[in-house]
Every structure is written in C-alpha cells, then in structure tokens.
Design brief:
- By secondary structure, the protein is of the alpha/beta class.
- It folds into 3 domains: 60 residues, DNA Methylphosphotriester Repair Domain (3-Layer(aba) Sandwich); 102 residues, Homeodomain-like (Arc Repressor Mutant, subunit A), CATH 1.10.10.60; 172 residues, Arc Repressor Mutant, subunit A (Orthogonal Bundle).
C-alpha cells in the first residue's frame, strides 16, 4: 500500500507535539497564512480548523501554499540547519582533525545546541561523528597493509590503547585480530546517507549496515559465530557488486538488487526477510500487514523482532515497515535515514525500476 494519511485529529496532535515520526510523510498547510510547514515546525501552532494536511510537497504547492521560512520544508531537514551545514563542511575538509567543544564554539555555534541538532538529525553527536571519521582514516591505513602504529597515528590517536578501544567499539574486535586472508572481509561503502560497512565472502554478501549503528559490533561478533571464520579488511566481488547497485539506487536509476545474499537467522526470520523484499519500492506496510502476508497474523511482535534483526540494510528493505497509524517507527540506522529512504523511493513508485 502507498502511505495514506491518518485522520485529522491524529495529524493535528502530531503537529502540536512536533512529532518527527511524520518527517517526510506529512505536511500541514495553514489556510490563515497560506504557508505550508513540516509537522516539526517550531512556529506557533495554528488552530485545527485552519489546518490542511498533505502527503506530499507537490500537494501543498498545488493547493496554493508557499513554503515556510522557519522550517524550510523544501530542504532536507539537516540541510536547513546552518550549524549542521557548517560543521559537516568543516569535517569533510579535514576528517583527521581532533574536534573539541571549544572548536565548535569557536565557529560561533553553541555546543549544546549543536549536540541536540546532530542527535536529532543523525542519531549521534558531532564529536562522535568526528571521532568516527578519524578512526576510518586509521582503518584505511590497515586496509592498505600499514602497521597498527601507523593506523593509530593516521587516526590521530595519541594512545595505542585508545585506538584499539575505539576500533573494537566500531568493528567488535581489535586491529591485531584482522587477517589478510580471512574468509569474511569488511570494507566501507560511501553513500549519500553516510558510510556503510559491507561484509562478504567469495560467494555472497553477509552484512550491510550503516557504520554508525550502535549494534554493529554485536552484529559482527554474531556473524563471526555464524560462519565460524575470521574477519579481515578488504573486499570480494559481492562488495563491488553491492557498491555499484547502491550507487544506482541512490542516483534514482534502479531499485533492483541482485547481489547474492547469505542470510543468517531462523527459518521464521528468513521468511520475514524474503517477504520484505517483495514490498515494491515506494510502498510501505505495517507490522500487522507484514504478519498477515506471511500467513501468521498473530505474529506481529515476532515480525517486528525479525525486522530489527535484519543485517542487510536497504537490500532487505526493513525501512518500508511503518507503524499502524502511518508514523515512522524504530530503525537501526536512525529515523532520519528511514525518512530519506522512503522519500527517495517515491521516485520508484512513479517509474519502473
């Protein structure tokens, strides 16, 4: 089913609460001002009788409303925040820089406001994002055959133990345990929604997750247990293939993924994941609908658990599952990414994949 708006009362309550669950899925047009806004807009709330709700920006514009200058509904949420724009540009220009809150203040931004903004948009603070960028510099050195001490210095860590600790938090093991001839190999894939970690063997893709997902270390540990093999840095053909397919997906060219997958889970979980892959791009279902589709309408909670246990993001599209009331629900990669994926896939709903 394509997303359909819930009733007026539910949407107005979401507007008053500034509910981010409707970001990218519902907008409000205010008849008394002729302006349309995000439901998270900080402006004073209009009366219920002055609100018209829409499921697309095009609908707002067609109805004669103009965009709000406070919440900038025509811009992606993060891009409308000047602090986010400025800091992301600075990080991209110098990913090895050791950022502190004083540096953020030195750019004219309030550190506490920046902390909240980044947590809201990306699920992590700017300082956490900067540390991850530095760590990635070190992992790149290891991938190229560099020594651990070289990787530590390239990542900007003064202490070897601090580098090993940060590495372990991200990838679930210490640098010394990675082998060059491992059966499983992990590598980075850059996407418009942030870096992803892909793990494959010579035959299939085993894991695809956003690198900042907090559950990633645990997932990698579980994966090593499933296959009873070592994990190294590098890539096989499956990683090259999924990188190419992700590039086409984000470019709006193709939503089909043919990379061979290795699915690690119970029979029930694999059934749920296979059903997820049958949801057409641009469409969404609720957990209850998904349970009915697999012939087990009482297994809503089990379906939700299987959805959350998915280790191959985007390809197995757990982001297409929403709440029964139409709101966005939990997503391991962050609700802001779920919003962006659903927005992107509207293009595929209108054109063949």
């Amino acid at each position: 089913m394509l997303f359909s708006l819930p009733d007026q009362t539910t949407l107005y309550d979401a507007l008053v609460a500034r509910d981010s669950g409707y970001e990218g899925r519902a907008w409000v047009g205010v008849t008394s001002t002729g302006i349309f806004c995000r439901l998270t807009c900080p402006a004073r709330k209009p009366k219920p009788e002055n609100c018209r709700f829409f499921d697309s920006i095009a609908g707002c514009i067609s109805a004669g409303f103009r965009p709000c200058k406070r919440c900038h509904p025509l811009a992606p949420a993060a891009q409308s925040d000047p602090a986010v724009q400025g800091l992301l540009a600075a990080l991209e220009a110098d990913p090895a820089r050791r950022w502190r809150e004083e540096d953020v203040a030195g750019m004219g931004f309030d550190p506490s406001t920046v902390r909240r903004s980044f947590k809201r948009h990306f699920g992590m603070t700017f300082l956490e994002m900067a540390r991850q960028a530095r760590l990635r510099q070190g992992i790149g050195t290891l991938q190229q055959g560099g020594r651990i001490i070289e990787a530590q210095l390239d990542a900007g860590y003064a202490s070897p133990s601090a580098f090993r600790s940060a590495f372990a938090r991200l990838l679930g093991t210490n640098p010394a345990s990675f082998t060059g001839d491992a059966m499983l190999r992990a590598d980075w894939i850059d996407t418009p929604l942030g870096a992803m970690v892909a793990v494959s063997d010579s035959a299939a893709l085993h894991l695809l997750e956003f690198a900042d997902r907090k559950a990633l270390p645990a997932e990698l540990k579980k994966l090593r247990g499933f296959v009873r093999g070592d994990l190294g840095l590098g890539r096989f053909a499956a990683t090259d293939q999924i990188e190419s397919e992700l590039s086409a997906f984000f470019a709006g060219d193709c939503a089909s993924f043919t990379t061979p997958l290795a699915l690690h889970g119970s029979t029930f979980s694999r059934q749920v994941w296979q059903q997820l892959r049958l949801i057409p791009p641009g469409e969404t279902v609720s957990y209850g609908q998904l349970a009915c589709q697999i012939g087990n309408p009482l297994a809503v909670r089990a379906v939700a658990r299987a959805n959350g246990a998915n280790q191959i993001a985007i390809v197995i599209p757990c982001h297409r599952v929403i709440g029964a009331d139409g709101s966005l629900t939990g997503y391991g990669g962050g609700l802001w990414r779920k919003q962006k994926l659903i927005e992107l896939e509207r293009h595929y709903a209108r054109s063949p994949s």
